[in-house]
Design brief:
Pfam families: Usp (PF00582). Belongs to the universal stress protein A family. By secondary structure, the chain is an alpha/beta fold. 35% of the residues lie in helices and 26% in strands. Helix 3 runs parallel beside helix 4.
C-alpha cells in the first residue's frame, strides 16, 4: 500500500517509536518498504543556544542522534529498509521539506490530544497535516503517555 514512509521522532520520547514503526509496517501491507526516521534539532531555531555550541559539539550531537535512531529499530520485516535523517530547524518545516525531498507516500507521527493551549499556539502535527504533499497518519498520545 505505502512503500516510502516518513516517521518524525522526538528522541526524548523513544517509547513512541515502537508504535509508530508498527503502524508504518502495517501501512506497508507486507510489501517492500523504506522507513525514513527523521529527527529535527530545534536548538538553533531562535539561535538561543548558538553561543554555547561550536561546530564540533553540534556534529557530535548529530552523530549521536543518528546512532540513537538506528538503535531504536529492532524486529523489522525483512523487506524493510531504514533511512535515518537529521535536520536542523523548525519541526514542521523540516518534516514537510523532508517529505517532499524524499518523495514519501505517507507521514506517520505522534500528536498530543489538543488542549486549550492549541487554540493559541498551533501544533506541528496540525501544520504538517495542512501542508503535507502526501497522506498523514496522526497517532494520538495522552499527556500522561508523553
Amino acid at each position: 500500500m505505502y512503500s516510502n514512509i516518513l516517521i518524525p521522532l522526538d528522541l526524548s520520547h523513544k517509547e513512541q517509536v515502537v508504535e509508530l514503526v508498527q503502524i508504518a509496517t502495517t501501512l506497508a501491507a507486507g510489501t517492500p518498504a523504506r522507513i525514513n526516521l527523521l529527527y529535527v534539532d530545534q536548538s538553533f531555531v531562535h539561535r538561543a543556544g548558538h553561543p554555547q555550541f561550536d561546530s564540533t559539539l553540534h556534529e557530535g550531537h548529530r552523530k549521536e542522534a543518528l546512532k540513537e535512531m538506528q538503535g531504536l529499530l529492532v524486529n523489522l520485516p525483512e523487506n524493510t529498509v531504514v533511512n535515518t535523517v537529521y535536520r536542523d530547524g523548525t519541526a514542521h518545516d523540516q518534516i514537510l521539506e523532508t517529505a517532499e525531498q524524499l518523495g514519501v507516500d505517507v507521514i506517520v507521527m505522534m500528536a498530543r490530544k489538543p488542549g486549550i493551549s492549541s487554540y493559541f499556539i498551533g501544533s506541528n502535527a496540525e501544520r504538517v497535516v495542512r501542508h503535507a504533499p502526501c497522506s498523514v497518519f496522526i497517532v494520538r498520545c495522552d499527556e500522561s503517555d508523553s
